[in-house]
Amino acid sequence: MSEVQAIKDAETVQLIGHLLSIRYHRQMADVWYIGLNLALRISDLLAIRFDDIHGDRLQIKERKTGKIADIQLNPKTLARIEKIRADHPDHVYLFQSHRCQQIKQLPPKPLSRRAVTLAFQQVGQELNLSLGTHSMRKTRGYMLYQATKDIGRVMKMLRHTSEGITLRYIGITQEDVDNDFIALEI
Q: Would you tell me which of 40, 78, 136, 151 could form a disulfide with 44, CB atoms 3.0–4.6 Å apart?
């Protein structure tokens, strides 16, 4: 499988969300949009419980690193979360699998990583993009970097320790650096 990339323009971000909504379900579009805004790894995103949300903050312990992610939720993300909560007041997980509801004796479970991966890959193929679950995190990092040109802020948001890794991660290439030299004439 090829490495997934950051989505580098807002129109494509919106198109992906739209296609996920109509090809699959609004829940998959919610994963996309909330995932973009939280910049979490997919395992942490899918494991969010409603009781991890405290007012306008999300507080979780990242599975991969053990670091605490204490994230301020922006108004769009809060609105999506509140809509999910209103539609499914009995859910434990933000992205709870509907299959668990069909089999009442099973405890609640979040959507599977596999289901999200397949949906993202299929939309990516339709758009001729290398799209995957990590694209959300990479896209958030890329867009923050483009808005601020502050790699330190991006590193802090992604909880990275290496500037080089962060630059490669968000897809800043030599071509991008060359274009910056051309665009900025002093």
A: 40
